[in-house]
Amino acid sequence: MTSKERGECLYQPQKWNYEQLKAYLFLLLRKPKETILSLDQFPEIIELPEGLHEVLNQMRDQSLDKHERFSVIGGEQNSHSTYLSATIIKAEIHKVPPEIVLAERNKANKNALEVIVTNHSHATDSDYPNQSFSAGDLYNIISPNDPSLKAICLAERNINMLAFPSKETALGVDPMIFSQDTFVNFWGEFSRKNSLTNWKTTMEIAKRHKLVIYFGLPNADLKRITG
Q1: Which of 60, 113, 117 is nearest to 88 (CA)?
Q2: Is 48 exposed, middle or buried (0-12, 13-18, 19+ CB in 10 A)?
Q3: What pTM did the predictor assign?
Q4: Which CATH topology does 3-224 take?
Q5: Do the bridges between strand 114-121 and strand 81-84 make them parallel or antiparallel, or are there none, so unpaired?
Q6: What pLDDT score was predicted for residue 95?
Q7: How many CB atoms lie within 10 A of CB 35?
Q8: Count of H helices and E strands in the chain?
Q9: What is the per-residue pLDDT across 35-73, written as a single tens digit (0 to 9) for each?
Q10: Where are the domains of the chain?
Q11: What pairing do the DSSP bridges indicate for beta strands 211-216 and 222-224?
Q12: Residues 96, 137 contacting (CB under 8 angstroms)
């Protein structure tokens, strides 16, 4: 795909295939401030590749033991190629600790790759309204500790989700001042005070921080629900 083709593919508002998604991620790696899209420039639909669907389905099934699962998509700037890790990491019960994320990032770096998307599962049997990103998940793209991270993908019990920051996202949350624990506690209290489901809390965080979130059933295209 030429530079011209990469640029042209990004601003088709209706649907991206996986090649178009990869093109956007690589542009973000090279020039994040110049190429990050505004809310109105993201497509309505994103098509995920079969290989990623297979990984998400495996993570979903394996998480029936209550342990979350984690994997990464790495990118190599020079070759514009992506690497979907075939290794699915068994994490803790209802949690992926930072040590696992750091280990996978270091492993990718040793192979001259940057982790551009993280995939994880939620070990939940909850009803649909409670299947969604957590505040802690979304913090990672609002105030990323890894500047190469461009999106997060989630395999819930019955759905898949994908989230991006936009040009309008308030990226000024300094993790030294506003830590992930503080962020999670704030939204936990907000959710309790307003009797919100996990899903509605996710929508409130996305609205406040101008995130673009996609939703879809397993093995199906993802449709934009915020932004």
Answers
A1: 60
A2: buried
A3: 0.88
A4: Cytidine Deaminase; domain 2 (3.40.140)
A5: unpaired
A6: 87
A7: 16
A8: 8, 10
A9: 889 998 999 999 999 999 999 999 999 999 999 999 998
A10: 3-224
A11: antiparallel
A12: no
